[in-house]
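Q: My labmate handed me this sequence with no annotations at all. I'd like to see what the chain might look like in three dimensions before we decide whether it's worth expressing. Could you predict it?
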Amino acid sequence: MVAAMREFGRCGYSGGSLTVVAREAGVAKGSLFQYFPDKLDFFSYVAEYTSIRVRNQMTRWLAALDPERPFFEFMLELMLAWMRYYDEHPLERGVTAATNLELDPQVRVAVREPVNRIYVAALHPFADRARERGELHPEADLDAFVALLVILLPHFALAPHLPGLDVSVRLYARQRRRADRRGPPAAARDFRRFRAAARRQRRVDRHREAA
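A: Here is what I predict for the chain of 211 residues:
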């Protein structure tokens, strides 16, 4: 599986070679088709397997949190933990990039659908609890809210590592690393600084575009 994650993470679905996967795994290429009917099915399995690995790690992290923690504070820490995980796991980051940046829309939809179900199932209970505690509006559409979070997750995973994605996420990651070194009480203060830095960066970007 490591060979497949490495190849698809490096070359994506369209450019990934099953010949290379088989060679790096030390097996015959034909043996791959004993388990998967075609390349898309194999790639879908790799993407789902990767998502389960990430979910399992996040589940362990979530289990250590205080269940009474305010929802939006929890969400902030979740995003930071998510970004740290992908920073430290380049194989998972590569597969996530291959899954979300695949140019063929049919492939992208086929692969993202089972992956999204995994994350929706993991996040929905926290949104349910937040609405019960009054932290979300009682008539909030939780399905839409969780779907929005799932759309954002890959961006937070990839933005600090891929040129051209939102610079504010990279600023945030840098601010967060400094806050981690100083301890949890610095988080709120650093978040305010991050927002101020992001606003300054947007003004600089607009000035450059106008020039």
